[in-house]
Specification:
This protein is mainly alpha-helical and 431 residues long. The protein has 13 helices and nine strands. Keywords: Membrane, Transmembrane, Transmembrane helix.
Length: 431
Amino acid sequence: MTAVDADARRAAVPDPASVPAPVPAPVPAPDPQVGPASVLRLHPLTRTPQGDRVVVGRTDTGRFVAIPAVGAQALDLLEAGRTVEEVERAVTPADATEPVDVLGFARSLVRLGFVAAVDDARTGDAAAPAARGFVVAPRARARWLFSRAGAAFAGACAVAVVVMLVAVPDVRPHALDVFFLRTPAESLAALTVVTYVLAGVHELAHVMGAAALGVPARLRITRRLYFLTFETNLTGLWALPPRRRVGPLVAGMAFDAIVLAVVMGLRVAGIGPDALWAAIALVELAAIVSQFFVFLRSDVYAVMTALLGCTHLQRTTRLLLRRTFWRLTPDERDTLAASPARDLAVARWYRFVHVGGLLLATWFFVVLFLPSTWHLLTWMRDSLMSAGPTTWTFWEALVLGVLLLSPRLLTAVVAARDVVDRRRTTRARTR
């Protein structure tokens, strides 16, 4: 027996984005009730093969789930106007010991907001977006930027960067390039603002790349572990074949490569403020390298999962690791058992990458992150206490301190928000 209901509830498809967020658990709608004789009228749904599953969803709400082949077959029959009972008889194999749970599957479709009406009764219509953030659905502008010519230009810039790094040692980024102003505090504060701007345009590149394919995006501020992250939710890309998703997913890195090539080229030519270009080059090189930290669900992770045919690799990996070191709950065992075969195959080797990344992040947190945060707090305290509020030194230290600490403060706010969201979700599920 195949319980398509279990897959529809548990196989929520992750966001194919650089700094993606999982789709929250849908909130059940109390009415209307679905019974064996019910006929469902579905919203327009997309269907995209992904490994041994089919990704089904609504592009207008950005909610997608991965279901097995029997679920896709049941969905087609329900969409054709067959009753739940008729569909159950049609999809249940003749040699099955018990019927496929189409009734549970149909009820899960209502909870997901995929059903417009049950018989003659309209549903609550979960048309509101499923994820937090600002909806951005711009017109498709400058499509040539995301054409083959645009991709070739970005690729040429990436090659030029590598050539300059190898052939011109003087323009190679150095850790001390961050100190390009009068004092270290001024340099780091200014670089924080520059990083915010570059990260914002990086995400805008994702948005524009998706818009060129007619896919809306959702922007928000989130975190990966203790790192502040600007996120572009491109869940709507699941309506497209895997290879067509790659362009919007790598658009941010393409922007980084172009900026890096330009500032390094200006340094080679001796044009403009060399110290500023060096600082920007260091920021952009770090941004590109960080995208290869796949354990943080980066751009490279999103491309990797799309091309490998995975639907929920991160969740499957965590469950495999939890099973290795702890005992799974009954729900977790069922979720792991329902995981797509492709996810399980990839997770068997990806889990070592995941663990290695977590160990590296732990080392960075203990050795660098905590000491630097304490140093910033100490410097800010000493600067403020040594000067009165009527002096320029006091206000300079206050402004610089707030800028320097802003990534950490925002990360703490996001972490608190995540805790509140998890508690709300837990309470909603227990009702």
